[in-house]
């Protein structure tokens, strides 16, 4: 019986050694994999690492001198002598493979090839923390995330020095093995939201995760919906504000953005600058955004419907001007509207792909030249050109880029329905959109809250923003454990000394 167990154990050990050898043989096929064998008189050993992942200064200053001096004392003694914190001794082939690919140095004794020492010596190339590129604000902090997860978490902890700020890390992606972090404040965030987010991330079956935007799409409640169900942001202050409300934040390595949820539709039209400005100005600007988005979606479809079917609604004073502008146009309104819309989309896409200075020039000059030329050539009317240009301008008022893309797309089906059914077509499209939004959820929470279901307590920061003295409680939608931000009864009501 003992001989049978010993034979099985030796066979298992030999199989594991062969597996490690196969991994090392695979590494050797790459030209940046370095392997040095030192034939020490007492203890011969090997050092292996990827030269493109290892910091050469740490290798020559903190690793090699101590290995040469203490290798004869064994790996355990050597581990205590090397002045690096992350050192481990293991025989797990999977761990060895993963660590070496992350920039660890592998030290293997020729006398005992089962055990290997892994020394952390990775080199990291990071850009400095810069200003926001997408969510730029005139007032407030001017820091944005970078592609380093540790740096991004540092920016969050600097703003929220709380022991209850919990971070759960996991790896996602079969090939990339991207490190993903889930952040929440214990005692405020609803644990059901945290569990749901963790489960969705763990259930992802995909080979590569290159950016947090890919995770955003994979963990959405409805992956077929054109409406974003989580807010993407590059600003640490916005993430900090979301955490204090009870939201769950997801960040991934190699991504300069984070996303959080659950969220609502009205939150996509809220900017951080709304909280840095006086509440009167912030409320006015926020209402202006809602008006601009409504105008951007409906202006061109309404024009098409009125000109095609409901021309009796046009005032007499304006009718002559419209007739004069369309007298030489050979196309129906839908054709000239689609022509102008596609032209603006082409200019916008070209400006985004070209270098910054060239892109701005192309956008301005191209818009002026093509617009003026199309009117003079009789392809479009000048009134429709003004409407389409204002609609494009209004669409840029959306603070969140993902929602801006949605607004760009949904205008086209509404215009097509308006061309065939007139005002009824517009109403049908709006009803379908409203029905979809009513059914839509974010982490299982209603997407149209506080409109549907109606929650008047959350209207204080929806379509307008009230003073901060009204923010004594956190949003009802988050279902936070701690609902109170501060004690409203203790708000100072006495006069100041100088009053």
UniProtKB/TrEMBL annotation:
Segments traversing the membrane: 287-311, 383-402, 414-438
Keywords of this entry: Membrane, Transmembrane, Transmembrane helix
Pfam families in alphabetical order: GerA
Annotated InterPro entries: Spore_Ger (IPR004995), UPF0353/GerABKA_families (IPR050768)
Compartment(s) where it occurs, according to its Swiss-Prot or TrEMBL record: Cell membrane; Membrane
Record flagged with keyword Transmembrane helix: yes
UniProt membrane topology term: Multi-pass membrane protein
Primary subcellular site in the record, as a coarse category: membrane
Similarity annotation: Belongs to the GerABKA family.
Protein name listed in UniProt: Spore germination protein
């Amino acid at each position: 019986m003992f001989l049978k167990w010993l034979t099985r154990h030796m066979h298992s050990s030999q199989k594991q050694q062969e597996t490690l050898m196969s991994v090392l043989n695979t590494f050797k096929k790459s030209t940046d994999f370095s392997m040095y064998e030192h034939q020490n008189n007492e203890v011969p050993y090997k050092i292996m690492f990827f030269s493109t992942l290892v910091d050469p200064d740490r290798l020559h200053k903190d690793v090699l001198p101590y290995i040469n001096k203490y290798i004869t004392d064994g790996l355990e003694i050597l581990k205590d002598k090397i002045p690096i914190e992350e050192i481990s001794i293991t025989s797990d082939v999977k761990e060895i493979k993963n660590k070496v690919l992350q920039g660890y140095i592998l030290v293997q004794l020729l006398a005992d090839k089962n055990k290997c020492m892994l020394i952390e010596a990775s080199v990291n190339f990071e850009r400095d923390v810069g200003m926001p590129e997408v969510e730029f604000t005139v007032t407030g902090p001017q820091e944005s995330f970078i592609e380093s997860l540790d740096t991004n978490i540092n920016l969050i902890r600097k703003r929220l020095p709380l022991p209850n700020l919990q971070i759960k890390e996991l790896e996602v992606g079969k090939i990339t093995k991207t490190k993903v972090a889930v952040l929440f404040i214990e005692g405020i965030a609803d644990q059901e939201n945290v569990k749901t987010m963790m489960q969705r991330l763990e259930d992802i079956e995909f080979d590569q995760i290159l950016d947090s935007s890919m995770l955003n799409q994979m963990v959405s409640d409805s992956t077929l919906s054109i409406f974003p169900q989580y807010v993407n942001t590059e600003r640490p202050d916005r993430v900090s504000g979301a955490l204090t409300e009870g939201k769950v934040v997801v960040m991934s390595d190699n991504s300069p953005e984070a996303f959080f949820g659950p969220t609502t539709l009205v939150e996509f039209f809220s900017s951080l600058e709304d909280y840095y400005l006086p509440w009167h100005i912030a409320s006015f600007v926020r209402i202006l955004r809602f008006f601009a988005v409504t105008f951007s979606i409906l202006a061109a479809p309404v024009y098409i419907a009125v000109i095609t079917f409901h021309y009796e609604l046009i005032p007499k004073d304006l009718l002559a001007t419209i007739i004069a502008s369309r007298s030489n146009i050979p196309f129906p309104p839908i054709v000239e509207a689609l022509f102008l819309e596609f032209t603006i989309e082409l200019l916008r896409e070209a400006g985004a792909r070209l270098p910054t200075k060239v892109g701005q020039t192309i956008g301005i000059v191209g818009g002026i030249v093509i617009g003026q030329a199309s009117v003079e050539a009789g392809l479009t009317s000048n009134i429709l050109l003004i409407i389409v240009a204002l609609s494009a301008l209004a669409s840029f008022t959306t603070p969140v880029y993902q929602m801006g893309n949605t607004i760009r797309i949904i205008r086209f089906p509404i215009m097509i329905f308006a061309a065939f059914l007139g005002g009824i077509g517009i109403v049908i499209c709006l009803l379908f959109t409203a029905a979809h939004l009513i059914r839509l959820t974010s982490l299982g929470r209603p997407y149209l809250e506080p409109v549907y279901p109606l929650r008047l307590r959350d209207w204080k920061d929806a379509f307008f923003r009230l003073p901060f003295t009204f923010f004594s409680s956190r949003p009802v939608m988050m279902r936070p454990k701690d609902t109170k931000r501060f004690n409203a009864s203790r708000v100072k009501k006495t006069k100041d000394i100088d009053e």
